[in-house]
Specification:
With 185 residues, the chain is α/β, with parallel strands linked by helices. It has helices spanning 7-17, 34-37, 40-50, 56-63, 81-90, 112-117, 126-135, 137-140, 159-174; strands at residues 69-75, 95-101, 120-123, 144-147.
Amino acid sequence: MSHPVSRAARRVLAHKHGDRKVEPTFRGFAEKNWKLVYLRHNKLHRARQLGKIWPYKEWKKLMVDIEPVKVLFVCSRNQWRSPTGEAVFARVEGVSTRSAGTASNARRKISIADIRWADLILVMEDKHMSRLRADFRQEVAYKAVHVLDIPDDYKYMDADLVDLIRARVEPLIFDQGQDTLSDQG
């Protein structure tokens, strides 16, 4: 019996006799094991890029032994924006929130105790940052302060305001491992 001339003839013969030891492969690679392609650390990295906590159980495990991140939301009169930020993140595990205003007629005026309490200070506009630096220069010097650039165009718990606050604040709160003092300029 002569040796088959073409690859196709060899495959037919091998299939017919059943003496093929290895399953057919695609370009020399075995079938992909998708669980290995999308490894856990790849999924976690992608979730962090999207600003998500994945899986949620992972966040709970991380927050068991850790002190909560103390976040202070600041706007002018503590009427709409900062109370909304406080309410949105009040029920999130691992986050403790307060809100205050910079104006003299604010519902809750910001104090030195608030600034000392906070790990992260989130102001709605540049003017609030300037006011904090003018009134509490020593206290804010080594605090992480971020400007969210949210205008005073929203009412309390407005759906657009809630979405905007979530989109801008979640990366700041959940990436606390990185150095956040870079925004203090």
